[in-house]
Amino acid sequence: MQSNLPVDILTEAAARGIDARPFVIQVAPRDVSSFDATKNGFLFVYRDTCPFCRALRATAGDLVRAMAADDTLRTGKHVALYFIDSSRHGPFVHEALGVTSVPSIFVVERGRVANWPDNKNVATTRGSDGAIVKTLPIASMLKVLRSMARQSRLEAASSTARQTR
User: Fold this and answer.
1) DSSP label of 69
2) Residue 4: what are its φ and ψ, rounded to 5°?
3) How far does CA 71 lie from the centroid of its chain?
4) How open is the CA angle 116-118-122, to the nearest 5 degrees?
């Protein structure tokens, strides 16, 4: 079964009445190389044909719903979940990001991509039906996203204040 992780997440969010387009973003290598320094978040490297990547869909959907319900994150103005497909951009994700297996999750902060220390907390289990389930540490991810959003807002306010002087 082939899927497209970000499209699936957007579709599932829309079915629940959530517009996740401001913070679920499919990217290409040129986007990763020039991330907007004011919009931070997480970069998910996935492959459409990977069963482990497809297993992220449910918990990534949970993360999107939590973001949409959070006053600090819901606008998508300062944070996003970025997705890049390694089957389309394999050489880039391998050479530029050092990805050797998918799914991989990175933190994007101030326009730079870095290893995410909590990546080790992404759990792989099997559901009652035997399907593979990937569980994201959502509370930890929300904490990071909220911190990034607050920092971006403070930096934007500081910049605006300097410009008006």
Assistant:
1) H
2) -125, 105
3) 18
4) 115
Residue 47 CB-half CA count within 13 A? 16
User: Which tens digits make up the pLDDT trace of 28-87?
Assistant: 999 888 887 778 899 999 998 888 888 788 888 889 999 999 888 888 788 899 999 999
CA dihedral of residues 64, 144, 23, 160 (deg, nearest 10): 150
The two structure tokens encoding residue 29: 């290598």
Residue 29 lies in a domain: yes
Query: Is 105 inside a domain boundary?
Result: yes
Q: Which is nearest to 147 in space by CA: 59, 36, 66, 73?
A: 73
- Residue 164 covered by a domain: no
Q: 10 lies in a domain?
A: yes
The domain total for the chain is: 1
Domain containing 76: what range? 5-159
Q: Which string of b and e fits 121-153 if b means at least 16 CB within 10 Å?
A: ebeeeeeeeeeebbebbeeebbebbbebbeebe
> What's 112's domain CATH number?
3.40.30.10
CB 83 within 8 A of CB 106: no
Please write down the long-range contacts of 89-94, taking CB distance under 8 Å and 24 or more positions apart. 89/28, 89/29, 92/29, 92/32, 93/45
